[in-house]
Structures are given as structure tokens and as C-alpha cells.
Amino acid sequence: xxxxxxxxxxxxxxxxxxxxxxxxxxxxxxxxxxxxxxxxxxxxxxxxxxxxxxxxxxxxxxxxxxxxxxxxxxxxxxxxxxxxxxxxxxxxxxxxxxxxxxxxxxxxxxxxxxxxxxxxxxxxxxxxxxxxxxxxxxxxxxxxxxxxxxxxxxxxxxxxxxxxxxxxxxxxxxxxxxxxxxxxxxxxxxxxxxxxxxxxxxx
Length: 203
Prior knowledge:
This protein has helices spanning 19-23, 41-44, 89-98, 110-118, 129-139, 170-182, 185-193, and strands spanning 47-55, 58-63, 82-85, 105-107, 124-128, 143-148, 158-164.
């Protein structure tokens, strides 16, 4: 995005910001944030979003041999103890789509959710697909993707760059994202880094 806007890599400064701080109202420590934040109307009340740069699929992960290892449908998850990061669309997917009999566990960070899964406190975690690949490949010794949740009715969920409310840069960043999509660069990035096998769709 920065390159599309005419900046060099040397001109880009990176700062780490907790997820909750990104989506809360108030002044920002960044010009824009790329932090796998899904665009929602509720969040738009507090922050600005660029055009969507990635179509999101919510995914359930677990450890091999768990109670939900081998599940092939959303109904198979009905009795599972699932967890997600607080305030995320992953948490909403548990409560709205899966609707398990047990209340979901809520964590301040995804790292805490991973630790809970390692400790056997939960059966699985719901995260977006790119995060699911990372967790199962890097953070978990026996991690396994159970499957992707069906897309809800309506518009697909998308990640967008986050900016402060009414930022003068929102239009510029959106134009950059739109150009990257039109030029096929977003698709190239997706194919290089995110297009992997092993994430079946749950019925």
C-alpha cells in the first residue's frame, strides 16, 4: 500500500498496537493499521476502513485427537468448548453460526487462546483462515484445521486497513487498495502466501 502511495520501504515505520486499541475510538499511533481487522458497521462508528483487501473465511482449529478432530459439519461442533479473541468476528461466528451448547471462552489475545488449547481447557479456536494456517503450522505441535465455516448470507467478510475516524488519508489508502486489486497484485500476494490446501469446508 505504501509503495502504491509513492513511499519507499525505508520511509515506512512499523509500530505494534494491540488489536483492541486498533478498533477503539480515539487518537491513533499510526497512519493506518494492517492487522487482519474485519470491516463491520459497528466498528465503522469508531474508526475508518479502507476498501477491503482480503475476503475472510472463519476457520475452526484444534489438536489432533481432540473431541472435534474429524468434525465435518457445523452440527458436529454443537457440544464443543470453543474459544476466540474478544471483540472479534471469530467470536461472533461462534455465537451466531455455531451456537454451541457451552458458552465460548473469550481471550484477550490469540496467543492466550492457543495456550488454552494446549492446556486442554478448550476443544478448539475459531480464527480467520490465515491465522489458522499460522497457528497450526507454527504455534501448535499437533495443530489441525477442522474446517472453514460457511460464509454467512450477504456480503463476504473482508479485512480492511484501519485509520482514525475521519482520517484525511482514508480515501488515499482506499484508492491504493483498489489499484492493487485491479492490477491483480492482491491476488498474487494471496497465491504466494495464503493459498494453501488442508482447510475443508464444513457443511
